[in-house]
Write a structure and sequence with these properties.
Transcription Regulator spoIIAA; 108 residues; alpha/beta; 45% helix; 4 helices
Length: 108
């Protein structure tokens, strides 16, 4: 499954995208390639830490078991790498990549 976001991406919209995409992917037994390389994040660092612990869809099976590859911009890579570490620490399978090719290779 492919998800693409661009422009301003506030926290609440990000949560909605994560929830809908994971529910659909879990139902179809798909992984997700999420391209946010053209999105402008509006998320505080502390929110990255709490998101996988508090967002319901990330705490429940089967939606928490969906494998997700994020394609990000060079400028936002460090924030997403922090989120990847946090997500991995709570048992999610999530990778952060700079190219779609890298993300697809990791998903397959």
């Amino acid at each position: 499954m492919r998800v693409t976001a661009w422009g301003d991406l506030p926290k609440e919209l990000g949560k909605e995208i994560i929830t809908k995409a994971r529910k659909r992917a879990a139902k179809a037994n798909y992984s997700i390639l999420c391209d946010v390389s053209r999105a402008s994040l509006q998320v505080a660092l502390a929110d990255w830490f709490y998101l996988p612990r508090r967002l319901e869809v990330l705490r429940e099976k089967p939606t928490r078991d969906v494998k997700v590859a994020l394609v990000v911009s060079t400028e936002s890579k460090e924030d997403y790498k922090f989120y990847q570490n946090v997500a991995t620490n709570v048992g999610l399978t999530l990778g952060v990549f700079l190219t779609e090719e890298q993300a697809l290779a990791w998903l397959t």
